[in-house]
Amino acid sequence: MNKKTVVSIAALLAASLATTVSASASRMDENSEKRMERFTQADLNKDGSVSYSEMMARVQEKFNMFDQNSDGFLELTELPKIMPMPDHKKKRMEKRKGKMKKRMEKYGKEMPEGMSKDMQKRMKEHRGERGKPTRMKFVAKHDRDGDERVSLDEFAVKAIQRFKAHDINGDGSISREEAEQAKMHKMKKHHKKKRDKAGR
After folding, report:
1. CA distances from 196 to 189, 190, 191 (A)
2. Residue 13 lies inside a defined structural domain of this protein
3. Domain of 78?
4. Each residue of 136-156: pLDDT tens digit?
5. pLDDT at position 182
6. 79 within some domain
7. Best CA proximity match to 39, nearest among 163, 137, 155
């Protein structure tokens, strides 16, 4: 391999790496903007930090959207038949559907002759439904005492856990800096977990 070829390959690799880094940075900027948008919405008194009471006010607001009879509990019958999906889950679902579509297109070409198109269609529909929120999943996820209904305390568990994880200095409120630091810490833990899993 001559010097000119080596230089060309190096240039191509550098360009590819730069594109990947640029795309990654763009995604990080977009995610950061959305986090700050959610932070601003949660900061009800606009003092630059989110207190525990402000966080709980947002939780109560979401809870009230489902609590149709205002009895302080969410039961299966009062939940909507089609549960709303958060934006981050919608994106995850779309990404998953895209990957599944590619796999199924490839798999469809390699399928045995005996596998009918009807069977392929049913498989696609079944896989497309996976991950969608349902009333049953919602109650099963939040009902901690097994009474088949969800109280405000049960509904708030995840939000309280996230609040504690973001309140780095433990003063009962989350600043913008703490919100960013907590996210970076979570990303580092996620990448470490993936590296550890790959190293097994």
Report:
1. 10, 10, 9
2. no
3. 23-84+151-200
4. 999 999 999 999 999 999 999
5. 76
6. yes
7. 163
The whole-model pTM stands at 0.60
What kind and span of H or E run contains 158? helix 152-166
User: How many structural domains comprise the chain?
Assistant: 1
What was the pLDDT predicted at 98? 77
Residue 200 lies in a domain: yes
The tens digit of pLDDT for each residue in 68-126 reads 999 999 999 999 988 888 776 777 777 777 777 777 676 655 555 555 566 555 555 55
Beta strand pairing call for 49-51 and 173-175: antiparallel
CATH number of the domain to which 75 belongs: 1.10.238.10
The answer on pLDDT for 172 being more than 70 is: yes
186 found inside a domain = yes
- Residue by residue, DSSP assigns 19-51 as HHHHHHHHHHHHHHHHHHHHHHHH-TT-SSEEE
Collapse the DSSP code of 74 into the 3-class scheme (helix H, G, I; strand E, B; otherwise coil) and give the result: strand
Give every CB contact of residue 78 below 8 A, 6+ residues apart in sequence.
Answer: 66, 67, 68, 69
How many whole angstroms separate alpha carbon 71 and alpha carbon 75?
10
Alpha-carbon distance 76 to 82, whole Å?
12
CA 89, 91, 92 angle in degrees (round to 5)? 60
Token look-up 């070409």 returns 109
